[in-house]
Design goal:
It is a single chain. β12 and β13 form a beta hairpin. Strands 1, 2, 3, 5, 6, 7, 10 and 11 form an eight-stranded mixed β-sheet that branches. It is built from six helices and 13 strands. It has a single domain, classed as Fumarylacetoacetate hydrolase, domain 2, CATH 3.90.850.10. The chain is 26% helix and 31% strand. The model has no long low-confidence stretch (mean pLDDT 96). The chain is globular, with a radius of gyration of 17 Å. The protein starts with a helix and ends with a strand. α1 packs across α2. By secondary structure, it is α+β, with helices and mostly antiparallel strands.
């Protein structure tokens, strides 16, 4: 069992790595061996530090929603991270490469909740809680050197989340499980796929989000944002570049990345 002092020390290490844009070695290399619950304790403390600086918790993001990725990592379940208001960008906004260490970007689907969700819920209950859905992009940025990490490492590091870009909100369509997605850099397609890559159905990712957050005593609150997970492989970012994602039936979202 790690101590509270060790949890705080790891959270400070990761927080400073993000704030200074300086990568850190994996935790094991620093003598820290964490279980998954202990890694989530670090994540929670990491976000508490951001809240003490004035940020507000506004939702969560899901990770490893692809079965192929879970197989690659040798894990059976999804992971999740917390989102604050400072991490949220509107479509068309600008961000700077200087704000990250070694960022990557992936297209996603975002949900906005109109009702609370917690614990074991059905797909129908999850759908009923959705107030709106939008095309989205997530900028992921591991704080570990060379973008290499263990399962506990990535969970402690808030599941590599750095920023989210959300497009126009729309009513939940009848069909969400097989929508085409194309992500482009400066108008050139770099990744294409389907929302089916997100748990077979993005609403199943929302079901998992309620379960996993509930295990941590967290209720997904009305107004919160839930990022369903990557629909394609992530692409490394260079600058300058304009990144866009087109999601069938949901529309377009974009972000301009400056040097």
């Amino acid at each position: 069992m790690v101590s509270v002092a060790e949890v705080n020390a790891i959270a400070e290490l990761l927080d400073e790595a993000a704030r200074r844009r300086t990568p850190t070695p994996q935790l094991a290399a620093r003598g820290h061996q964490l279980s998954v619950p202990e890694a989530y304790a670090v994540q929670a403390e990491l976000i508490r530090r951001r809240e003490r600086r004035g940020e507000q918790l506004v939702g969560i993001k899901m990770g490893f929603t692809s079965e192929a990725k879970r197989t690659q990592m040798g894990i059976a379940d999804l992971i999740w991270g917390r989102l604050t208001d400072a991490m949220c960008l509107r479509s068309g906004a600008r961000t700077s490469l200087a704000d990250y260490i070694h960022p990557r970007i992936e297209p996603e689907v975002a949900f906005r909740l109109g009702r609370p969700l917690q614990g074991a819920v059905s797909r129908a209950e999850a759908a009923a809680a959705v107030e709106a859905v939008a095309p989205a992009l997530e900028i992921i940025d591991s704080r570990y050197r060379d973008f290499r990490f263990s399962l506990a490492d990535v969970i402690a590091d808030n599941s590599s989340s750095a920023a989210v870009v959300v497009g126009e909100w729309r009513a939940l369509p009848e069909e969400l499980a097989r929508l085409s997605i194309v992500m482009s850099f400066d108008g050139r397609a770099v990744q294409s796929g389907s929302t089916a890559a997100i748990m077979g159905d993005p609403l199943l990712s929302l079901v998992a989000a309620a379960r996993l957050a509930g295990e941590a005593g967290l209720t997904l609150a009305p107004g919160w944002l839930v990022m369903a997970g990557g629909a394609t492989a992530a692409e490394s970012l260079a600058a300058p570049v304009q990144v866009s994602a087109e999601v069938e039936a949901l529309g377009r979202v974009q972000i301009e990345v400056l040097a």
